[in-house]
């Protein structure tokens, strides 16, 4: 619950016990002018359900970290205490048998760990922290278009899955924005993987509820087809191509592109003997950096611009074959 204080006044937090005992009143702030305030709450039952869902997910996969700010917030301290209690009473022996562990970390430390690590763990964090960090990790791993968002009940009986970047029927950024551009006749490049995997997530859950092997085969084949197109065939949308090549380009055509492998840190993911073909917009910031005639698939550490200056780059990149300029 949030509140806009219109002006001078006192903000208080009051707890009134249902048994009629003395109420607790805490003075939050004396407003001298207009301002805002927010109140949050949670319950032992809700946090315990969250803990069980987190431990169950980690038990089938990997290590679990719980990230809070319990050093300065009693609110977070309750999450810490309940998670530890649930772990000790229910999951400790199962984790030890599986060769994994549970650990509490401050959210500050967890953020840096997530960025520098190679993954392989489950992180249980509060809702707002999760909204922010999940998008950072998705983009850091390639693209937000590769991540699904799933809601799961504590018993795992009901799930809701969607693409993290939204879909054509909701007011969320990426896909809706691309769709509006497409309606105007403009060329777009929209990664469909998250939307496809949101559907396969639902199909997989349905197979568990119905024991439907035929539906399970559809789920397996559909996900495998997506992986094959990107990893084996090297065909991908603009967001992934730019992430792999580590360069900026406002116009990348065709929408589905094949990329070269020489010198790429992700070369093991891509087929050999493929060539990136770029068409650079006349106002693109990248254009002055590229000569008109460039040999493709040559590993370099610098770009030479048109006036002869050499611009060093932090790491090896691909020198693309420029096939023409667009107006």
TrEMBL record:
Its EC number is 1.1.1.42. Signal peptide: none annotated. It catalyses: D-threo-isocitrate + NADP(+) = 2-oxoglutarate + CO2 + NADPH. SMART domains: Iso_dh. Its cofactor is Mg(2+); Mn(2+). Coiled coil: none annotated. This is isocitrate dehydrogenase (NADP(+)). It comes from Piloderma croceum (strain F 1598).
């Amino acid at each position: 619950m949030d509140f806009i204080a219109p002006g001078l006044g006192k903000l208080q937090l009051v707890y009134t016990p249902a048994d009629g005992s003395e109420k607790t009143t805490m003075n939050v702030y004396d407003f001298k002018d207009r301002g805002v305030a927010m109140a949050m709450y949670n319950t032992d039952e809700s946090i315990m359900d969250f803990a069980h869902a987190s431990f169950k997910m980690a038990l089938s996969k990997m290590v679990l970290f719980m990230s809070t700010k319990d050093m300065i917030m009693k609110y977070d301290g309750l999450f810490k205490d309940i998670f530890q209690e649930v772990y000790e009473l229910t999951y400790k022996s199962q984790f030890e048998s599986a060769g994994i562990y549970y650990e509490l970390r401050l959210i500050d430390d967890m953020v840096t760990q997530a960025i520098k690590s190679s993954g392989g763990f489950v992180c249980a964090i509060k809702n707002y922290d999760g909204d922010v960090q999940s998008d950072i990790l998705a983009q850091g791993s390639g693209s937000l278009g590769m991540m699904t968002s799933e809601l799961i009940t504590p018993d795992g009986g009901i799930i809701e899955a969607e693409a993290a970047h939204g879909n054509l029927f909701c007011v969320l950024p990426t896909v809706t924005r691309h769709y509006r551009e497409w309606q105007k006749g403009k060329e777009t490049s929209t990664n469909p993987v998250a939307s496809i995997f949101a559907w396969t997530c639902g199909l997989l859950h349905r197979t568990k509820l119905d024991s439907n092997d035929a539906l399970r085969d559809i789920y397996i084949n559909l996900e495998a087809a997506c992986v094959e197109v990107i990893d084996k065939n090297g065909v991908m949308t603009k967001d992934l191509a730019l992430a792999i090549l580590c360069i900026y380009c406002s116009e990348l055509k065709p929408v589905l592109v094949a990329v070269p492998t020489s010198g790429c840190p992700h070369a093991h993911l891509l087929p050999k003997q493929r060539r990136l073909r770029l068409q650079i917009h006349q106002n693109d910031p990248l254009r002055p950096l590229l000569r008109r005639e460039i040999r493709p698939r040559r590993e370099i550490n610098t770009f030479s611009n048109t006036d002869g200056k050499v611009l060093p780059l932090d790491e090896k990149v691909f020198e693309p074959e420029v096939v023409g300029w667009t107006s």
